[in-house]
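Our platform keeps sequence and structure together, in a single record for each protein. Because each token names a local backbone shape, the row as a whole describes the fold. One such record is reproduced below, unchanged from the form in which we store it:
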Amino acid sequence: MKKILLLNPEGATNKKVKEFQVREAVRAIVLNEDNKVALLRVLKYDYYKIPGGGIEKDEDRITALRRECLEEIGAEIEIVGEVGMIVEYRKSFNLKQTSYCYLARLKGKSGNSKFTEDEIRDKFEPIWLSYKEALRKFSINTTSFEGRVYIMPREYAFLKEAQKLIKS
């Protein structure tokens, strides 16, 4: 999968990164029949993200992505393309995270989300926005360090890259 970006805003050295915990995650730019994009608003920290999350033991990327979309936006998806991958060196979290992003279409209608306890605590809420509105949400400043420095730049980069796929 094509590497889009390395996020290293805290300047982690290659030597330090070797000590980090490694996490792999999947993300999806999901479009519905009206070409609106699924986002998750994280009300507690006032930022947005695209559906997705960590790949669990014994899961492949596609299985994990389908599970995450079912949990977070209450919907089955059809994957239509690869967007790319982004690597994050999260020095303050001692974490090297690689996120693999796919372009997907909603299969049927979205239903009820089945959020984790953490997602419920952080007040996750699925919303559907036009592509232009979705991109705009990632320019909003948030007080959340993780949201501002890692999540929002990552999601914006994925949306911009997916836009190229959609246009072709």
Summary: Strands lie at 3-7, 21-31, 37-42, 47-49, 52-54, 76-90, 95-107, 124-129. The chain has a mean pLDDT of 95. The first strand starts at residue 3 and ends at 7. Residues 145-167 form the longest helix (23 residues).
